[in-house]
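Example 4.3 (complexes with small molecules)
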Amino acid sequence: MPFCAAFNCTNRLKKGSGITFHRFPKSGSALLKEWLVKMRRDKWIPNKYSTMCSIHFEEVCFDRTGQTTRLREGSIPTIFNFSAHLKEKQKQKNQAESAIENSLQMWTVGQMHRVIGKAATKNF
Ligand SMILES: [Zn+2]
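Answer. The structure with zinc ion bound is encoded below.
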C-alpha cells in the first residue's frame, strides 16, 4: 500500500480521499534532486516503491484528463509542512502581534482619557 515519503506527512492510499500517489522521478535525474531538495531529504534515496502524495503539489502539476490523475512531466513538489520550522515562525508572529495589540490598547486607553477629560471640562 503506498504511503507518502514527505516529511511529516502521514497520508496513506485511501479510497475516496481524493489524494493520489505519485512515483519519484528516475534515480540520478536532475528532477529527482530537485524533489529531494524541496522535501529536505537530500541524503535520502527513494526506492522504486517510494511515492509522494498529491497534497505536496500545486494544482497546475496535475494532468486530470485521463482516467488516473498523473503528474505533468517535470513537476516538482513545493508544499510541505516542516512543522518545527513553522512553529518557530508562528511564535515570532504571535510576539509581534501581541506587541501591536498592547500598543493599540494603550492608545485606546489614552484616547478614552482624553475624551473623558474633554467631557468633564464641558460639564463644568
Ligand atoms: Zn504526503
